[in-house]
Request: fold
Amino acid sequence: MHDLNFSQQVESVVATCNKRLYLLAQLKKQGLGISALDSVFKAIVLNKILYALPVYFEHMTEGHRHMLQRVLHRASSRGFISFYYDLDTLADTARYHPFHHSCRQAHCLNHLYTVKPRPPGAMRLRTRGHKFELPTIKYEFNKQNFIVRSLFNYV
Reply:
């Protein structure tokens, strides 16, 4: 498990996105407006980047992050999008949404969280981003677990 890397995944995503940026260039040549180009970009490029980003973002090298950011920069500089996207911000948002949704009572992962009861007469401390108990982590490998990572990231 120590040699886990996502090089092929990132390189595949970058190659696919570059092909799709070429398609956007052709659509722009045909006279498609910025709002329509922005919608197509979100549908065919941004969704490709965001798919499984929370899983492999933590394991990417700085070079791979730069490759993905360059795709987003290229889309902005060529005028395909009306808003500049930052990869780190996209990754933070992509990591937060699954956790936020899994906190709902009806979600299938909700049973994995333990609600920390507040004892009567306890002092009022600053609020956390969630009401769940933080687990004790014994092994480094367990820190990469989605549930554990989410609980510690959104304290």
